Automatic annotation (TrEMBL):
Residue ranges of the TM segments: 21-43, 85-108, 120-143, 149-169, 196-221, 254-275
UniProt family annotation: Belongs to the binding-protein-dependent transport system permease family.
Domain ABC transmembrane type-1 residue range list: 85-275
UniProt keyword annotations, A-Z: Cell membrane, Membrane, Transmembrane, Transmembrane helix, Transport
A Pfam family it matches: BPD_transp_1
Protein name: Carbohydrate ABC transporter permease
One GO term (biological process): transmembrane transport
PANTHER family assigned: ABC TRANSPORTER PERMEASE PROTEIN MG189-RELATED (PTHR43744:SF12), ABC TRANSPORTER PERMEASE PROTEIN MG189-RELATED-RELATED (PTHR43744)
Length: 290
């Protein structure tokens, strides 16, 4: 007996063990999903740079040509496309910012303020999400016409400043991320409801508001039906309406239409390139706290 106790060897977990457990099938599946998602945009560029023969050839042409810049120049000559892009930026950005604030205000009221009929009103808001958007076109147009807003940008902006989904989204984040004790402490310090919202509640849910704004920005940018109904003047057209104007009455220049669609998609790609990581962080923040 030497009095020395031998220790059992301790197995150290490799740092890459968790990554190793994911395995190549997962990465293969993710790669295939990315290719499927990106391919329509890539093929749009191919058709715009090659022409109609990229579609009519058998097998179809999958490599881009050298005519894209000529097609892009023709797009800007055929319609006031630069002005249409600017109109889309103004409309989408205004709705994204204002709707995030207004929906956060409504979400704060439904989540943290106690007033008569709160649950009934919130139920009505949720029920409006079950109504198809197409059913609201006629009454919405009648209201816009009564206000003399037809053929104006505010006819697009004002109806989109709040949404049932946005209110529900912010209400859920307010309920799960903001403590009631923090509100009570602020009220004891003399803060009113607006001060509590702007200085305490909104900074806490700012990532969720940013995600909501980005979702609304994308939805408004891609919207075609409502701007097509209320806008008549070419100088007020949004990007999606300008793409429609690239098509003739009886024939379609496929290269021109695809070039316009690709150019209208580029601003969204740029936005997601710079803020995509922040958007994912905002979604995950709500997921962990919810």
């Amino acid at each position: 007996m030497t009095g020395v106790i031998e220790r059992a060897p301790v197995r150290r977990r490799r740092r890459g063990s968790r990554v190793g457990r994911v395995g190549w099938p997962t990465y293969l599946g993710l790669g295939i999903a990315v290719l499927i998602s990106v391919f329509p945009l890539y093929y749009m560029f191919v058709v715009a740079s090659v022409g109609a023969k990229a579609v009519t050839s058998s097998p179809p042409i999958l490599l881009p040509g050298f005519n894209f810049f000529e097609v892009a120049a023709k797009v800007f000559e055929t319609v006031p496309f630069a002005l249409s892009l600017w109109n889309s930026v103004v409309v989408s950005l205004t709705i994204a910012v204002v709707s995030a604030i207004l929906c956060a205000l409504a979400g704060y009221a439904f989540a943290k303020l106690d007033f008569p009929g709160r649950n009934i009103l919130f139920l009505i808001v949720l029920l409006t999400m079950t109504v198809p958007a197409q059913l609201s076109v006629i009454p919405q147009y009648l209201i816009v016409s009564w206000l003399n807003w037809v053929d104006t940008l505010q006819a697009i902006i004002v109806p989109g400043l709040a949404s049932a989904f946005g209110i529900f989204w912010m209400r859920q984040h307010m309920s799960t991320t903001m403590n009631d004790e923090l509100m009570h402490a602020a009220r004891m310090d003399g803060a009113n409801s607006w001060q509590i919202f702007w200085r305490i509640a909104f900074p806490i849910v700012r990532p969720a508001a940013f995600v909501l704004g980005l979702i609304n920005f994308t939805a408004v940018w891609n919207d075609f039906m409502w701007p097509f109904i209320v806008l008549k003047s070419p100088e007020l057209f949004t990007a999606q309406i300008a793409i429609k104007q690239l098509q003739a009455n009886r024939s379609i220049d496929v290269a021109l239409a695809m070039g316009g669609s690709f150019l209208a998609t580029l601003p969204l790609l740029i936005v997601f390139f710079f803020v995509g990581r922040r958007m994912v962080a905002g979604i995950m923040d709500g997921a962990f706290k919810g």
